[in-house]
Each structure stands twice: as C-alpha cells, then as structure tokens.
C-alpha cells in the first residue's frame, strides 16, 4: 500500500515559521488547563463518581498534564471530603478545593464552608463569588457592598493562610452587560485582597463569542498584572468557541471538563479546547502529552459509564473516518485534503469506512489494512479487481436490506476474508431450534411457572466442525449436536454453540458477549419488520473488541447468524492451515 503524502498542513499554527511576522510570535503563550470534571462535570445528569473513580481520574489528568485539578466542594458532602483526604502526591497538577465566599453577616473564622476549605488542605482554593448585581439582591439577599466585603474578606483570609486563590466571578458576563461598574468592582475587591487569578464565568451559557472577546479585553486591560481565566457553559453550544475567544482576547487559564460533561447542557469541552489552542493557535498547553487526548476521553466515558460519542471533534471514532469514495481516493493521495490535522497528534486514527457509498478504493484500502491482499497478487490484476467488485456489490446489496458495516467492521472483515482463495469456514450451522415453555402472565403472575417463577428457554444446534485431528494436517468434518438452556433464546443458542465449539477451539473460553443491540428497520411493517442485530464481543486476554451484524425478519435468525460470525472472527488466530488454505 502506498502511504499517503504528508505535506505541511496549512491549517495548523505556523507561529514558529521563520518568515512569520514577529507580532504573531509574541502572541504565543502558555495557557494553563484547569479541569473541573470531578466537581462541575459530576453535576451532569446521569453522572455519578465514587471516591475511587475520582482518584483514578485525578491520576489520569495529572499524567495528561493538567495544571489544576478541581477535586470538589469539601463543605458540601462527605464524598468530597474523603477524596481530599486521600488524594496525595500529584506529580504535575495542583489540587484545588472549591467553595464559596463567606456567608453574609459572619466571619471566615466562623463560616463552616470556609473552614471546610481550610481542612481540605489543598495548595489552591477557588472561591465562587457573585459578580451580577441582580444575583446579589435576589439570590444572596445581600447589599452590593456586603457582597464586595464577602469577596474581599474570603480572598484575604486564604492569602494569609498561604494559599493560591482564584475567584470564579459567577455570572460575570451577564453582570457586566447589566452593570459594568459593579461587575468590575467585584474583581477590584478580589485583586486588592491579593487574588492570584480572576476567572470570568459565563454561568448561564448565554453570551456570544464577540461579547466574550470584547468584555475579556476590557478586563485584561483593567488588570494587566493579574492572570485572567475563563469558565463557560454550553447552553448555546458555544462554550468551546467562547473559551477560544477569551484566550484570543488575553485569558491565560481555561476551565472545562473532559468531554464537556456538566450541568444542563454541559461545560466547555477540554477535549476540543486543548488541541485547538495548541495545534491551531500555537499556545503551549500540555506539549507532547496531547497524544493522550483520545485515550483520556474514552477512559472518562468508561469510568462515568457514558457511551462513546463517535462524532466528538478530535477524539471521536468518526472524527477521521472517511466514507465517500471520492473522499477516500483523495485522502489516500494527500491526507490534508479531507483532514484538518493528522489524527496521530491527538492519539486518534484515520478510518476508511465501507458502505453503499463506498468506491473500489475503500475496499482496496480496507483489505490492505487487514493484510488480506496477497503479496504475489497485483491489486490491479483481473482476479483482485473481480474480488473487490464482488465485495463492493455485496456490501451495497446488504446495506440496502438494512445492514450497517460502519459499526460492525468485523462482519466486513469476515466478508473480505471469505474471498481469500481456499478459505474454509471452521464450522457450519446445519440446523437449530429454540423453544420457550409457554406461560401466561395474568396481572403480573406467571401461570404454570417453574419453581423459581422463571421461564426456561432451550436451544439445540447441529454443527459441522472442521478441526485438526491429533495435530495432523487434515481437517476432517465432525458433526456436533448440543442442547443448552438460557435466559432467553440468544443466551440459550450462545450456550449450545459454545458447547460444540469449545472442545475444538479452547481459546474461545476467553471470548464473551458484552453488548447486544436490536433495531427495527421498517416500523411500518409491524411484526413482519426486518430486524437488525449487532453483537459485540470481547477477548478478555487482550481487551480486543469486535462487532458483527445481521439483518433478518426473524430476530432469532438474525441473532444466531451474528453470533456465529462473531465466533468465526474470534477463531481466526487459532485456525489451522487446513482451514485457511483449503
């Protein structure tokens, strides 16, 4: 396979180019990354982190190169207090405890939340303080002057204790639009008390990028010796754009979460912000550790029990996936034609998809990736072209029936392998049957139930197996008939198949089903609709996963075929030569 041309990408930052104007070089700066996944991210619907989860994520963020990791609000719940007690020894990042300014009418020495922040014993404290006069009056029910005193007193208290202090100026942009003078006076109160960083918050997520740019420039000019940060929410899907705008206007610290997790519609997504700042704007964020980006995103999905979103920028499985035949042909000649960066820079990979939109080049590339193109066979030869054309026509025909190979590349690989001259399937299904004892449910009660009130599904399979005999070169056919019971027809068939296969192919013991998805393709047909089944498998010894697909009007037939294909995929590495070569 000819490697695609790698030319300098004109879309990447060229701030270091020798012929670049000196002014552009001056704009390059270190932008510090402040992660708040463990606090703000955990406030997203459906996300709950245990203390061990938070400790693991903190470790990964530290390895990634985050400058600050916000661990939680120690005064709000025992979980966060436990986390701070256990989280010790970060190598790169500074651990941050989050809390509010003192309550009105009291002192820092007598405020329980302030004292909980002290007890957390972190080198950095982030204080949230109101910067919108409307919020001060309605939410805090305090006077404007009292709010300024609350900010000043709390910042000064922690500075006396030797802490690095940040002020999250809550609702700052809304507050500035309502009353510029008061919003700025909140910042002045913090600066006079010794604050280290002023973080401007678009708490409601309703500010536009040009407003962020204009207002941030005012603050940067007003406080030239203080670091300015930005904290955006994604209510208009502008959190990333607004964060980039703030950095362009002079901010040098960005707050956000992994994968944009957070309350309502989420926070600014660091998985999009960090590579954009580093690759497009030339700023220094995490250096070469940027290649950990995709792994960090997917690890966080796993630990938070969230699905991988394939179309996430930079880190999604589809971020660098090419499907259209013309696009594939172009990107194989020069990867910059339909990719804005090299996916390796963020730890991702280019993928060539095969579907009904594919061209010959898609099939060729996929076969070469899988090592299925014989070295002595020209890819421009007649036989190779016939094979590719046959596979392409089969893909288009099957996708027209409801298949989807984009999410089930193992089925496509199986299709390609079956075109290899002499390949023999390791087993063939001769017959199968499934039965479930009939029970009638009346108002939640099962009539004629088994002793445990569970229905029993039984499946039988008859297979023709090809396998080596006593280590020889021959592959005689063996007939196997097995019966198994299971929790439903798919589980029962799976059990019966394994009873036949495991004695011949022992490595299958480490293969398990990890996901099973069913989709009705034509709802208008009702009970006669075609059903598409996708089954995901995992090899426990190496963590490898693969997915197969089958579509059929009978859901059990679709499931059985997807299962068999999945097992055939699992057996490739163990197939004897008599099967591979015929």
From TrEMBL:
For this protein, the record's PROSITE patterns field holds: AIPM_HOMOCIT_SYNTH_1, PYR_CT
Region listing for Disordered, in residue ranges = 1-24
Alphabetized Pfam families for the sequence: HCS_D2, HMGL-like, LeuA_dimer
**Per the database record, which ranges form the Pyruvate carboxyltransferase domain?**
31-294
Q: Which CDD domains match?
A: DRE_TIM_LeuA3
In terms of InterPro entries, this protein maps to:
2-isopropylmalate_synth_dimer, AIPM/Hcit_synth_CS, Aldolase_TIM, Citramal_synthase, LeuA/HCS_post-cat, LeuA_allosteric_dom_sf, PYR_CT
Q: Which GO terms describe its biological process?
A: isoleucine biosynthetic process; L-leucine biosynthetic process
Per UniProt, the enzyme's principal EC class comes to: transferase
Does the keyword section mention Transferase?
yes
Q: What is its EC number?
A: 2.3.3.13, 2.3.3.21
Its annotated pathway reads: Amino-acid biosynthesis; L-isoleucine biosynthesis; 2-oxobutanoate from pyruvate: step 1/3
Source species, domain of life: Eukaryota
For this UniProt record, give its keywords in alphabetical order, as a comma-separated list: Amino-acid biosynthesis, Branched-chain amino acid biosynthesis, Isoleucine biosynthesis, Transferase
Entry GO MF terms: (R)-citramalate synthase activity; 2-isopropylmalate synthase activity
The family note in this entry says: Belongs to the alpha-IPM synthase/homocitrate synthase family.
Q: Name it.
A: (R)-citramalate synthase
């Amino acid at each position: 396979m000819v490697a695609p041309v790698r030319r300098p990408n004109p879309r990447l930052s060229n701030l270091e180019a020798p012929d670049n104007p000196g002014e552009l070089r001056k704009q390059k700066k270190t932008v510090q990354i402040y992660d708040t996944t463990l606090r703000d991210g955990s406030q997203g619907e459906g996300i709950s982190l245990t203390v061990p989860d938070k400790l693991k994520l903190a470790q990964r963020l530290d390895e990634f190169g985050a400058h600050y990791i916000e661990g939680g609000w120690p005064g709000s719940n025992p979980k966060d207090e436990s986390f701070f007690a256990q989280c010790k020894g970060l190598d790169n990042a500074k651990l941050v405890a989050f809390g509010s300014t003192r309550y009105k009418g009291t002192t820092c020495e007598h405020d329980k939340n302030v004292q909980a922040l002290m007890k957390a014993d972190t080198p950095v404290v982030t204080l949230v303080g109101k910067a919108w006069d409307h919020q001060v009056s309605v939410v805090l029910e305090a006077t404007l002057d009292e709010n300024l005193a609350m900010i000043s007193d709390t910042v000064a208290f922690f500075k006396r204790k030797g802490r690095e202090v940040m002020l999250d100026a809550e609702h700052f942009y809304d507050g500035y639009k309502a009353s510029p003078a008061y919003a700025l006076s909140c910042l002045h109160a913090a600066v006079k008390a010794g604050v280290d960083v002023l973080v401007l918050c678009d708490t409601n997520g309703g500010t536009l990028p040009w407003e962020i740019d204009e207002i941030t420039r005012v603050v940067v000019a007003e406080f030239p010796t203080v670091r300015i940060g930005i904290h955006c929410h994604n209510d208009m899907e502008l959190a990333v754009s607004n964060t980039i705008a703030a950095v362009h206007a002079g901010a040098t610290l960005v707050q956000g979460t992994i994968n944009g997790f957070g309350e309502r519609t989420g926070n600014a997504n660091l998985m999009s912000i960090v590579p954009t700042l580093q690759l497009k704007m030339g700023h220094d964020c995490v250096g070469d550790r940027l290649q950990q980006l995709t792994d960090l995103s997917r690890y966080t999905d796993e630990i938070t029990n969230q699905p991988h979103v394939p179309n996430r920028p930079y880190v999604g499985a589809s971020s660098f996936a090419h499907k259209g035949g013309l696009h594939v042909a172009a990107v194989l000649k020069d990867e910059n034609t339909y990719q804005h960066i090299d996916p390796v820079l963020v730890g991702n990979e280019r993928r060539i998809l095969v579907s009904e939109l594919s061209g010959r080049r898609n099939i060729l590339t996929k076969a070469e990736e899988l090592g299925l193109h014989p070295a002595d066979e020209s890819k421009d030869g007649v036989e190779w072209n016939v094979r590719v054309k046959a596979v392409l026509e089969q893909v288009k025909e099957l996708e027209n029936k409801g298949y989807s190979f984009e999410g089930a590349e193992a089925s496509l690989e199986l299709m390609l392998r079956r075109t290899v001259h002499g390949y023999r399937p390791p087993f063939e299904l001769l017959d199968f049957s499934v039965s479930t004892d009939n029970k009638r449910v009346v108002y939640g009660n099962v009539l004629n139930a088994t002793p445990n009130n569970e229905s029993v599904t039984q499946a039988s399979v008859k297979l023709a197996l090809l396998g080596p005999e006593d280590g020889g070169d021959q592959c005689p056919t063996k007939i196997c008939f097995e019966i198994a019971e299971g929790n439903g027809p798919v589980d029962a068939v799976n059990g019966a198949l394994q009873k036949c296969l495991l004695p011949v192919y022992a490595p299958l013991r480490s293969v398990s089903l990890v996901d099973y998805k069913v989709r009705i393709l034509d709802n208008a047909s009702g009970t006669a609709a075609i059903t598409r089944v996708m089954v995901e498998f995992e090899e426990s010894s190496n963590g490898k996963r693969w997915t197969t697909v089958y579509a059929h009007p009978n859901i059990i037939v679709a499931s059985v075929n997807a299962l068999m294909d999945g097992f055939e995929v699992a057996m490739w590495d163990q197939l004897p030569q008599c099967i591979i070569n015929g």
